[in-house]
Each structure stands twice: as C-alpha cells, then as structure tokens.
Task: structure prediction
Amino acid sequence: MTTRPPIAFEQGRTDVVTAVLIPVDGVTRRPVRGGLDAQLWDPVRQAARPRRLVHNLSGHVVLLNEPAEQDLTFRVDPAAAGYRGPLFVRFNPARDGVSKVVALEPRADRAFDDGTTLVRGSVVRSGGGSPAQPLPVEGLTVTASPPAGSAGHQFPATTDERGVFALAVGLKLAATAEGPAPIPTVLRFEKPGLPVREFTLALDEGRAHVLATAVDLDSDDQPHFTHQARP
Result:
C-alpha cells in the first residue's frame, strides 16, 4: 500500500479575490467551463502581466491578491472552446464590481444546438474588387430584429476572414390555425465606414437557413435562402 506525501499549509495565509471573469455562451447564455486561455494583460506593453489566474470548477477565471482600485485588462482566447477571439475585457473591480460576465461569440464553423434558428451566409463587396471576384468583408456585424411579439434573446454575429457568418436568431413560435408560421425578421449588416444593408427574411423557428448567394454591400439584390434539412 502506498501512502500520500504530507501536505503543508501556509499558516495565516488568506487569499483575497480581486476580480472574477464569468465566461458564457452569448447565444445560449450557458457557462463555458473549458477551452479558455486567460491572461492579465498590460495594454501599454501589449504583453501578459506575470500574474497567475485561477480557473475554478465553475469555469470562472479568478484573479487573487491584487489591489481592486485599478483598471484591469484581461486577454481571453476562447478558440479551443469554439468561440471567436481573442477578446479584451476591461473593468475596475472597485468601481464596477468584482464579477464580470464575458459573453462569447460562437465561431461560424462551430456546431449549434439542434432546434436553433440559424442564418448562415457570407458578406462581400463587389465594388471593392470586381463583380466577378468580390472581396469578402471581415469584422462586419450581423444582427436580427424579429417583430416585438416574436423576439427572444438576440446576440450578434461577426463575419470572419472569409466574410462568413452564422447568426443564431431568438424567435418565439408563431402558431396559426394551419400550424407554425414563418416570422418576418429584419437582418442588418453593418461595419463603420462601409455601406449598410438591411432586408427582411421570413424565418422558420428552429430551422437553419442558408443564404444561396452572398450579401453584397454594393448591391440592392435581395438574397434568397435554402433550408438545411432538419436533424
């Protein structure tokens, strides 16, 4: 039989929690408990500060034993968990509170829960290249605005380096005498300095919709979509 080595405890030591990051999925709002790399960050030097962060069993990222009265910056890289990043989180625990919820955006190539109302597509500019070879638009924000009575929780999507996005749309089921009805939903595409596109699509709750053509910021053409097969 083997015996465990004794564990020595430091007498009189009490750790003080300075700041807590609470990472959640921005779409489902469920906790993200793994796959995160977080660092306390020096925004002037653009480098990590030599402070260890503790990841607890709930997935929270905890900074200990630092003065609370200061502006803190954290660099969070959630790529291994399937989210976009890195992102920078800034707050002052003494002024803003010790805990900070960090809503993470799923990557466009990530799998979504069955039953998610989803719009997949891409965004280009034909005016920036040529009609035959339009240029993808990276870093553009895509949002959805269903009618007030049909709107659930909304979380924006961002186009990646290919111009590709996957937008989860929070919808409440619209039932009629004939059964569930599509919900007219306004999609908006915007990035500072670029033309804004906005159009309406009739979305079926709980289904994935794939735009058959790219959204061209330099065109007024209305994109059409196809449905992905239900799982």
